[in-house]
């Protein structure tokens, strides 16, 4: 039985990918499986937290004893997060939210034509950015940065821009890290500095993130 050090804390976690429809039979997506976000949900509920998991399409079974909200698109994920964010103590964005969606959702299946197919994309809302703007001082906001270059600089840039308290920098080009694997290699980036972690099971990365979240709650925001 793990320590109940998150007893009664409300935590919302986003996980997985989005599916952005082109027409009734096609969609645009990415490689996120949900493993990282589900591992955080599992760790948090075992430590006594009240967990809300907002998840895109995933093959995984959500852990028992939590509230799960299943969504498809980035807009739906945004709306679900915004509807539940105010009562949370901790918000963690582990989802690989679709930055763009096809501008048109065709009502009928697109027919093959001669020549190339051009699909125009428009921006989805940035969920973390919006949460950062309306965040209260007593809420802890955590983002993930999936990067392939300039990992720490980019993560620190996102920490500031999105007014988060902690960013989990994830070099997704390293073997054993990032999308689909059971392990991850991350650096915790906050206003006190960088903490590189070794290759760990995602479940253990989850506990390290939650440990830091509790420290940040005790310490209060550094500004
Ligand atoms: O699901 P797995 O297969 O286990 O893979 C795990 C993972 C690689 C998806 C995960 O570890 C990870 O890095 N998640 C973040 C992926 C991502 O979209 O990173 P980003 O750098 O594009 O986004 C930065 C942050 O803003 C993220 O917290 C993201 O959830 C959030 N965001 C991004 C875009 C958007 N429109 N809204 C957001 O809230």
From TrEMBL:
Region (Phosphopantothenate--cysteine ligase): 11-223
Keyword annotations from UniProtKB, A to Z: Decarboxylase, Flavoprotein, FMN, Ligase, Lyase, Magnesium, Metal-binding, Multifunctional enzyme, Signal
EC number: 4.1.1.36, 6.3.2.5
Catalytic activity, as annotated: N-[(R)-4-phosphopantothenoyl]-L-cysteine + H(+) = (R)-4'-phosphopantetheine + CO2; (R)-4'-phosphopantothenate + L-cysteine + CTP = N-[(R)-4-phosphopantothenoyl]-L-cysteine + CMP + diphosphate + H(+)
Any one GO BP annotation for this protein: coenzyme A biosynthetic process
Residues where CTP binds: 99, 109, 125-128, 144, 158, 162
Record keyword Ligase present: yes
Needed co-factor(s): FMN; Mg(2+)
All residue ranges annotated as the DNA/pantothenate metabolism flavoprotein C-terminal domain in the record: 6-215
Pathway: Cofactor biosynthesis; coenzyme A biosynthesis; CoA from (R)-pantothenate: step 2/5; Cofactor biosynthesis; coenzyme A biosynthesis; CoA from (R)-pantothenate: step 3/5
UniProt keyword Magnesium, yes or no: yes
GO cellular component terms given for this protein: phosphopantothenoylcysteine decarboxylase complex
Details of cofactor binding: Binds 1 FMN per subunit.
MF terms in GO: FMN binding; metal ion binding; phosphopantothenate--cysteine ligase activity; phosphopantothenoylcysteine decarboxylase activity
Coiled coil: none
Reported function: Catalyzes two sequential steps in the biosynthesis of coenzyme A. In the first step cysteine is conjugated to 4'-phosphopantothenate to form 4-phosphopantothenoylcysteine. In the second step the latter compound is decarboxylated to form 4'-phosphopantotheine.
Family membership noted in the UniProt record: In the C-terminal section; belongs to the PPC synthetase family.
Protein name from the UniProt record: Coenzyme A biosynthesis bifunctional protein CoaBC
Source organism of the structure: Tumebacillus algifaecis
Gene: coaBC
């Amino acid at each position: 039985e793990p320590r109940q050090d998150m007893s009664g804390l409300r935590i919302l976690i986003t996980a997985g990918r989005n599916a952005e429809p082109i027409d009734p039979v096609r969609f645009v997506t990415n490689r996120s499986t949900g493993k990282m976000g589900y591992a955080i949900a599992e760790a948090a509920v075992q430590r006594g937290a009240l967990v809300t998991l907002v998840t895109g399409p995933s093959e995984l079974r959500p852990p028992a004893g939590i509230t799960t909200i299943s969504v498809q698109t980035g807009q739906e994920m945004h709306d679900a997060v915004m509807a539940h964010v105010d009562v949370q103590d901790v918000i963690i964005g582990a989802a690989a939210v679709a930055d763009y969606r096809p501008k048109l959702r065709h009502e009928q299946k697109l027919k093959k034509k001669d020549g190339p197919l051009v699909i125009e994309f428009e921006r989805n809302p940035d969920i973390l950015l919006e949460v950062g703007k309306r965040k209260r001082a007593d809420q802890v906001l955590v983002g993930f940065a999936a990067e392939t270059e300039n990992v720490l600089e980019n993560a620190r840039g996102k920490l500031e821009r999105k007014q988060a308290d902690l960013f989990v920098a994830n070099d997704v080009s390293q073997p054993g890290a990032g999308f689909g694997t059971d392990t991850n290699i991350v650096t915790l980036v906050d206003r006190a500095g960088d903490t590189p972690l070794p290759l760990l099971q995602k479940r253990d990365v989850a506990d390290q993130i939650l440990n830091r979240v509790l420290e940040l709650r005790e310490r209060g925001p550094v500004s």
